[in-house]
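Bump. Still looking for Sulfide:quinone oxidoreductase structure tokens.
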Amino acid sequence: MIGATQGAGCFGAAYEFLFNTSYQLKKAGLRGRVPLTYVTAEPFLGHFGIGGLPGGEKLLRLFLKKEGIEAVTGVAMEEIAPGKLRLADGRNLPYAYAMIVPPFTGQEVVRSVPGLADESGFVPVRDTYQSRGFPDIYAVGVAAAVKVPWTAAIPVGVPKTGFPTEVQARVAAANIAAQIRGEEPAAHKEFGAIPAVCVMDAGNNGVLILADRMLPPRKFGVMIPGPQSHAAKVMFEKYFLWKTRHGYVRLP
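Sorry for the wait, here they are.
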């Protein structure tokens, strides 16, 4: 059983784990003996915490059908007990092995500062990534509170890792440098306006996800499946590890 619970902020990682698990089981000749179930708080497959993209639900359903994977969507999880996943609607789903993406939660050290964090422990920020209460404090990535254009009835987070965090960090770094020089922060970028750029690995397959905005409304958004996405993900991982090991931090 593989899935992502309510409040999870990176559903793409759950999909990657799901399809890579299926692929590795097939390579080992065990896929027919291991039923796979994907359980998610997403209201539909391919929501990804960003409201979905055109054709995304249909594409993910085709992927799951091809791999023989059952899906349970739009559910909250009550408890992960040994051998049993308890859902908030009263259902119990048995499992022999499970990987569940947990919710992002704020840190107590941040939550304990009066006026800094919201009730969940995340820092409300301006589009400069300065704290709304403390302009000399910055928060990006998983530390920042992000508003979404859907109701609380859809308990999904938004991806705050990878490319979005890099964009936020560049904005914050430029503004910190400006403040050190005695200038006003001039770099701005709302989270929802950050482009969506993601390569989702899926065993020997994959999906390239592109959109002009992270959150709707958007002018365009596409999901392009194919083995080229898997190859691109492998190449990027090797490149990223290489530049990190050698300290080439100025490379893109």
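The chain has a mean pLDDT of 93.

Edit: fixed formatting.
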